[in-house]
Structure formats: structure tokens, C-alpha cells
Amino acid sequence: MGLPYCFEEPESKSILSRLCSEESVDEILIREICEIELIVEGSGRAVGVYDDVARAMESFLKRQKETASSLTTKSQKN
């Protein structure tokens, strides 16, 4: 099963990217949560959904930490 249209069609993808940027929302996190929703949609599967979302959040937090670390390193060099 593919991702929603907004992640595939170029114009929609551009709009989504712009909105995420304007609102300071992590686009990868949105994508991962949409993927989880599509996987479990209509399946009645509740087991594991919280773990899937927790993994997506952990991935997001790791990216944020790496970005902050990178910015700190760059500012210390200047």
C-alpha cells in the first residue's frame, strides 16, 4: 500500500513541504505517522500501534538531537 497522494504527487509534496517548514513540523515524522495509520487502517489491530508511534517519535527525537548537535558544533567553530 502506498502513501497518501500528498507524499507522491510533486505539487502536493511541495505544498506539504512548505507547510511543514512554515509551521516547524517535521515532515519525516508526519510521513511515518501516516504510514502507520495506513498499515493499521481498518485492520482492527491495536496491538503494536503504540510501539510503532513510539518508534516514529524516537526517530524524530534522534534527528532533532543530531541537528542540535550539528548546529552547536558549527557555532563553536565560528
Describe this structure in words.
This protein is mainly alpha-helical and 78 residues long. The protein has one domain (5-77). Helix content is 77%, strand content 0%. It is flat and about 55 Å long. It starts with a helix and ends with a helix. The mean pLDDT is 83.
Concise synopsis of the structure shown:
Helix content is 77%, strand content 0%.
Task: List key phrases describing it.
78 residues; mainly alpha; 77% helix; flat
Tell me the number of strands.
0
The helix tally amounts to 4
Radius of gyration: 16 Å
* Helix content percent band: over 70%
Major beta sheet summary: none
Average pLDDT rating = 83
Intertermini distance: 47 Å
Overall shape: it is flat
Poorly predicted runs are: none
Structural class, by secondary structure, is mainly alpha
How many domains? 1
Strand content: under 5%
Helices and strands, in order, run as HHHH
Question: What does the secondary structure layout of this molecule look like, with pairings?
Answer:
Blueprint: H1 5-8, H2 10-22, H3 27-40, H4 49-77
